Each structure stands twice: as structure tokens, then as C-alpha cells.
Amino acid sequence: MNIENLNFEVAVIGGGISGTCAAIAAARNGAKTVLINSSAVLGGNSSSEIRVWTRGSSGGGNIFSEEMGILGELKLRNQYINPHLSPIIWDEVLLEATLKEKNITLLLNTLVVSTDYNNGVINYVEAFSTRGEMHYFINSKIFVDASGDGIVAASCNIDFVIGKESKNDFNEEYAPLSPSSCTQGSSILFFTEKKDHPIDFIAPDFAYSIDEIDNLINNDGRIVNEKTNGLDFWWVEYGGDTDMFKNANDVSLELKKLSYGIFNYIKNSGLYDADNLDLVWIGNIPGKRESRRFKTDTIITYNDIRDKKMFKDVAFYGGWFLDFHPEGGIYSTEQSCVQIPVGIYPIPLSTLYSSQVDNLLLCGRIIGTTHSSFASTRIMDTCALSGQAAGTAAALLSNNNKTTSFLNQNYQFVQERLEDILLIDRKPNVLDKTITIQADSTIKNVPGIENGFINSEDNDVFVCIPSSVVNELSLAIDALENCSISIKVRCDILPHRFDIGYSDYKSIPLTKGRNFIKLNIFEIKEPSYLTFSIKASSLISFPTLSENLAGILMGHVGLPKYYNPYVVLNNFSYLSIDNLFNGYNRPYNSYNAWVSERIECELKIKASSFNFLKLFFDPNLERELVSSRQLRVNDSHLIDDIFGVGPSLVKDFDIIAFKREKEVEVIKIRNNYQRVININFAEIVDSIIIKFKNTWGEKRIRLFSLNVENK
After folding, report:
1. CATH number, domain with residue 150
2. Buried b / exposed e across 152-185, counting CB within 10 Å, b at 16+?
């Protein structure tokens, strides 16, 4: 056995999605970082070893809320090089991003086995290479536990909870009357393909029999047929009512018995058209939903989510459902899951550390939450944001020789570095009076032509608009006869496709034929994003347009497919060039973007001097971007069929830089697929022209924010 002592400034334990984002964040903030992962691939539950999709607030129904930051970079890269969303290529997207960072040392197949901890300080962690004869002692100024189980934090004697708090503990609506050590269970997935010829399948002896499986699959939510595939089998869940550490091997074997038994049931029960169905992959590592949750300086509760409590040290956000699974999993007679929609809510930095340990931060599913709030925060997109926040904080502490208690009063230094994930409580920038900006094109017409309609016979319809246009916009509705509609409104920072937080209904009369109705019939909070919900009726339909007017969408309540409503609007000031300096780089109470009238257009920017430019484009933040998925998914996932780069992203553009009116540099960007563009000029300049050439499909340019500065 070869022994090696390694020294770093930040050590991240766990290479799941939160740990990967933490390591990249720490490295980009100047810290010499090691990323230690027990597996051969990064990504944790999202990796090709387990194959759970990354999901988050968009999947929970919050429109324009797709998580960005480092995770966004990874997802957008994935959409570009992996448009069919193979989990195998997703592994390489994460590996590629990590290897690009010169400050990261990557230790794969390396298991942390012990922690040297004394008097509130971690001195080192001990680790072994599982694929080689290496024994590491890893010293670091700051450690980040992204292990999913909290293996480092537990060694530091930070108090933790496994299971459920009682209703009396935090007065949470969805907490049980009595505490419980039970958790959500784990799952193993499997994938099938339909071939052009019959395929025989003989189940292994350990698989559960067809009769045994038949007794299990008739409970709620367990959809089984020859088309069921991949994550459609999320409900093959087990282990929530057992000791997950002591009985980990038993849980894994039980899930294998169940998975092979279910495929054999589909294949050989005679109930399905499965003669040509082939089993092409089955997992060997259970995807774990829940483990320890640590008692950090702040513990976020369901009540905080419900009330959208504004923490002073807010660092990132959540928005997935409260997604509860019964601890009995597949053996439970309860619903397979209960999903309760919530709006966007802030999560504070102080959920990521306990001041009793000077040099440890946490991220991922082990942060400071109750079981009820964990039902939402556990989702991988939220975990990734927690990783970026933790890695950023870790680098800050390391660079300044500070301990975690420093963050209690100095959280703003971390917030300043989280502009791309800090959706909540943004502080608009003060416009530098020396900066001028001109556009030769700004939107002046509603785009597109009428191309169809959606009906509302079976489902309510929602329409979302910024509050700033409510007095000037008219919505087209077609009526088969004279009738009236029942309509209500929700005011929030972002729209939501589910029926939560609405006002009482009001009535608007319609005449037979086409109507253009005004929506300014409610008292509203301004500024805010308005979501109007219109009751289902067989008498009405909603015409649609072929192109999208930025920031305005329509759909059926609860469903993930969005449409372009036919609206009439003559004032487009909500999409003016002023948005480029309003301090927001994404929708928040309004759309906050400049939108051009034509695709080939120019921006001219003048300032006293600068050598750095930062642009925030629109990657279609209403789209849910997942890490991987099979091409066909069950409708119960509530996910739209979206593949490839978003049409609104700017693809090709040139930047021409000037100094005292003399051209000094030309930068040509082609095939851009990222939301955030950072440009370092070769010298100090005082003006630039950005010439936009093309997008990935949209006929107009969308730009949220533009910053110039000296670096």
C-alpha cells in the first residue's frame, strides 16, 4: 500500500451533482481543490450508474425558474453535445467540466474512511483508492461534505436527524403526530428496448415470481406495461423502514429481486405485447433519496417554504414539490408519492454549516432541513445550487483564513459571488452614469401569426404576464355562444402552472365569436408576475400564435406544455433596453430582458474604460432541462419533450472593441450554447459594438443583462 499526504485549500467529499458543483465553484474562486468520489463516474444519482434525471423548480411548476449557475452551464453543454440526453454522455459532461478547472485534483474510486477531528477543527480525512493501492491522508483548510450520507459531518459529532420530526417539533402541517426513524426509500431502475425480432428472457432464480409481483403492482401509481421504461420505475422503492446503513446490502439485493421480477412479469406474464422487448440495462447501485439531515445554524422548515421566509443570508432557492414517499415503498398500500406544489422559496447559507465545526460546510440532501421541507430541497437541481453556494463559501473562507462562524455576519461576501443562482432578493445595480447604450432595434410588434388553439373543455387554462402590461394587454378568447368565464389571479415573483395561491374568482362576459378581454379587473401587487387561471368550459377556446412574445405564456393548469397566447399589445416597454442595467439577469417580477424586433441588430455601449464584458442570454428559462431521460416517458412525470439547445439562445455574434474611436479588437462568437458569456479584452477599451447574427431558432434577440467593468 502506497501512502501519500496531500494538501489542499478546499476538499470536497462526494462527487454527486452537489459535490461537482461545489468543487468547480471553489476552484473558480481561487482555491486549490480536491474532489474525492467513491465511484468511477461523477454525478451521483444522476450518473449512468443510477440514471435518475436532475429535476428542480421548473419541474415543480414554477415557470422561468430553471436552475442555472454552474449546473446551468453543465445542462446547457449537455443539451448541445448530448441532445438525446444519454446518461452515459452526461457522465462525460461532468468529467469534462471538472478536468477543465486547473485548480481541481480529481480522485475517483476513492473512499473516505475516517476523519481526524479535534476541538472543532478537521485536520485531515483518510481515504483509500478502491482501484489501486493508494492510501491518502488529505489535509485541507476547509472541507465540504457532499457525500449524501454526511460521512464527514457525522464524524465531527454534529447533531443530525434520521427520519421524521413530530408535528409538535416545528408545528408543520405535513409532519406526523409522532416522530419516526423512517425515511424515503431507495430505487433501482432498469431500461428496455423493443427489437425487431422476438427476444427470450429467463429470469434469475432470485427474482420474485410473476404471482408475487402481481400482488404488488396494483397499488396507486405503479404503472406497468411494455412501454414503461427507465425512471418510469421510480416506484420500485424499498428500504425506508429499515436501517439504511446496517442493512444497505439487503436493500440492494431486495431491489434487484424486485426489478428482475417486474421485468419478468412484463415479459412473460402474457399480459403485454412484450415478445420483442429486451432488457438492456439494470442498475446495481440503489439511488438513495434520504439519509442524515444535520442540525446546522439554520434549519429550514415547511413553514418557511410556505411563507417564503426571507432570510438575510439567502444563498440559493428551491421550488420542487413537497414530494413525499411512503417509507414502505413498493410494499406500502399508501399512495406511491404525494406531490404538493410550492412556489419559489429562499434557502439561507446557514443551512450549509454548523458553527461548532470551524472548517466544514455541507451541501446536497444533508443540509439543515426538517423532513417536511426536505421533501422539496432533496431534489438534485436544488442540491446542485447548494453545492455552488458551499463551494463558493469554502473558497472565501480559505482565501481569507476564516472559520464558518465568519459567515454569520459576512454572508454578503458569498452572495456577491452567487449572482447567477441568487434568484431571491436581488439588489438592482446602480447604473454607472458614464455608461451609455443604444440599440438599433427593439421589439414593437406581437410576433407570429395565428396557428391554432387550445381548448379548455377538460382542464383549466392559465395565462402568465408581467404586471406592468396588465392595463394594456388584451387576450383573445373564442366563444361558441354568449357566455361568461370564471377567472382568478395569482401574484408572485414568478408564474406557476399549478393551482396555488390564487384570489377568488371573478366573472367576465363573452359574446359569441372572438373576444379580446382585459385582465385588469383585480387588485394586484406590483411589480409581480401574474398568473391568471380560467375555469374549464366546453364553450371557449384560446387562439395561439406561431411565435412567442417574451415573458408571456399559456397552458393547461398542471401540465408542462406551454403555448403562445394570441394577445394584443401596443406598448413593449417591459422589453426595453433599460432592462439591461436593472440588476436582474433573469425573470423576477417581470421578464427583465431587452428584446429586438429583428434578428440581425446591434448594441453600442460606451463607458469611460473597461476590459471585461459579461452577457446573460435567455436559454428559454421556462424549459425544464434534465440531465438524461429515455425518449418516451410516462405522462405522470409532467415533463415536456424538449431536446437540444433552446431556440432563444443567441448563437452567433461579433464584438468589435474601440479605444478613442479606433478599432482595436474583433471577437467572433459562433455556435454559442451558453447563457453566460464572459469576454476579456486584450486591452482597456471605451466602447464596443455587439453585432448579433443568429439564434438557435428564435427570430429575435433576447438579452437579460450586460455588465462592463475593469478587472
Report:
1. 3.50.50.60
2. bbbbbebebbbbbbebeebebebbeeebbebbbb
